[in-house]
Design goal:
By secondary structure, the protein is an alpha+beta fold. The protein folds into two domains: about 1-105, Alpha-Beta Plaits, CATH 3.30.70.580; about 110-215, Alpha-Beta Plaits, CATH 3.30.70. The chain has six helices and twelve strands. The protein has helices at about 20-30, 75-85, 105, 120-135, 155, 185-195; strands at about 1-10, 50, 60-70, 90-100, 110-115, 140-145, 145-150, 155-165, 170-175, 205-210, 210-215, 220. Strands 1, 2, 3, 4, 5, 8, 9 and 10 form an eight-stranded mixed β-sheet that branches. Strands 6-7 form a two-stranded antiparallel sheet. The chain is elongated, with a radius of gyration of 19 Å. It starts with a strand and ends in a 5-residue tail after the last strand.
Length: about 220
């Protein structure tokens, strides 16, 4: 009868929850919040919840999205309050809106990331960013469920810049593509183009996820 789109955040220690862990926690929260969620048909019915663009385990995020199908018309603000109360601190509901006809997944075109490098040197990081930007493609490898994948980390980077010195902090805008290029893949690329010690330890946080403006290298609100 109605579809609701949810923006939620993964913060603090809850950034270490896997996508599957979050799915279980969210389904329990739906029951506790008494949200009239619709179920699929068949031998093993499951809640009609679709997830899009989940952040990797270990990364915090202010912009995670999902869509719920419900069996009766609900007040979005009331659902947001009930779900936020039912979820543990650190898995926080930011907003809930009624879905429109546009595909949510199609609007998640890019992500903005803030990556802190507590053990790296500012001058080394700045030099690596310049070398990475100037390179003619930077291939990296990552082990995935389907085996080792090779990807061009540079091709996904719309913007990369150093925005703080002590400790060095990178701001990245990464285009969503297949295979997905993550912040750690970009860091691997930085180390490939220039010796960069201390960049293994990092804290990645997704600040935004949504439609990409290629001209301004900004990420918009997919729920707008």
């Amino acid at each position: 009868m109605q579809k609701l789109r949810v923006r939620f955040a993964k913060r603090d220690r809850l950034r270490f929850t896997s996508h599957r862990d979050f799915q279980r926690a969210f389904e329990r929260a739906l029951r506790r919040a008494r949200v009239p969620v619709a179920f699929s048909h068949g031998f093993t019915p499951h809640p009609k919840v679709s997830y899009a663009g989940a952040a990797p385990t270990g990364a915090s995020s202010e912009a995670e999205y999902l869509e719920i199908s419900v069996t009766e018309v609900c007040d979005a603000a009331a659902v947001a309050a009930a779900l936020d109360e039912a979820l543990p601190p650190g898995l926080d509901i930011v907003t809930v809106v009624e879905a429109d006809s546009r595909s949510l997944a199609d609007r998640l075109q890019a992500s903005e990331w803030r990556v802190t490098l507590p053990d790296a040197d500012y001058a080394d990081v700045s030099a690596a960013v310049r070398a990475f930007t100037a390179a003619d493609g930077v291939e990296v490898e990552r082990m995935t469920k389907k085996g080792k994948r090779t990807m061009d980390a540079q091709a996904a980077v719309v913007l990369i810049e150093v925005v703080a010195e002590h400790p060095p902090v990178l701001r990245m805008v990464l285009r969503h593509q297949t295979p997905t290029v993550r912040p750690e893949d970009v860091l691997t690329g930085l180390r490939r183009v220039r010796a960069l010690s201390g960049a293994e330890a990092h804290l990645a946080s997704r600040l935004a996820q949504g439609p990409l403006d290629e001209v301004t290298a900004t990420v918009g609100d997919p729920l707008a």
